[in-house]
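quick one, two chains, predict together pls
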Amino acid sequence: MNYPNGIKKLKPTFNQKHIDYQNRGMNLEHDLNSTNMYYIEKEKAFIYKKPTPIKLVKVDYKKGRINEAYFEMPSTTDYNGIYKGKYIDFEAKETINQKGFPLINIHKHQIEHIRNIDKAGGVCFLIVRFTKMNETYLLMSKPFLEYIDNASKSVLPISYFKEKGHLIKEKFIPRVDYLEIIDSLEEFK
Amino acid sequence: MNYPNGIKKLKPTFNQKHIDYQNRGMNLEHDLNSTNMYYIEKEKAFIYKKPTPIKLVKVDYKKGRINEAYFEMPSTTDYNGIYKGKYIDFEAKETINQKGFPLINIHKHQIEHIRNIDKAGGVCFLIVRFTKMNETYLLMSKPFLEYIDNASKSVLPISYFKEKGHLIKEKFIPRVDYLEIIDSLEEFK
């Protein structure tokens, strides 16, 4: 797009940088947020992304302004909510890896959480997008934990997603219709 | 406690101030967090407080340090999770008001969320502590919404909590055993 001279300056530089960073590897997050918004509008499900936990260090409470803070490790998964009266809980990740999903992306506390939710009878899963192939898979907690508990490899191979998981077809709206997969599963009928 | 001269200086001042602020009116939050930790340890329920949503403005991503950010309005309630396979969702508030709970403390989006979860079949409620009397009540979404939809008053009177809600007895451990109330309700048996 061609702008007349100077017009671009209307946008502050830091904001531009911020937006670029936010978009880096966050397309799945964006697609999931719009999918969840669609579900909410249709009153189909109420599932939200949890805010990123942040450790506050310096805060000007009068101005409501945070002057120093750090990102913290989340102790649970990123998304949860309710669908058809059931508790839904999942983690979503993108990877540029073409062979599989590096397990370093899911930390110990999150695996513990997935195990707890699975035992408690929640509908728990991972959504992983392989960005190079533009393929997005849903993998239920049971086969995920089975792999974690039995394999010594640090990468969950894409073949495992193809075999034990479910490819989520990309649609125009909703973008990532993961509840369609949940609906198709025998155990939730 | 008596400290020898100088020892107190070991704690940085801003940290001290920060802690004081955090504790101001946050005893209920503290009690609920320890109660939820207790439930998790006993594998009774998996309920967590969502992090406060924060709008990032200036971030040094190399250092993982946030240099400017602002608190945002939450669009849902603060706590959710799973208990006995059911989706649990609630908001917790303290008030120094002795007559009732000022409804300004629950904003429009949160009321909409409570309405959605109630309709979707989730176990949804408010926990309100009246700090002057040191009484903590659980009020289910249905009587709460009934009040909101029919009363023009901006304060939910304490008499309404006594009549339609449930006093949560204070215990040593867990501090605020709100699941005991849920267990006692006919509709969740």
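The first helix of chain A runs from residue 13 to 23.
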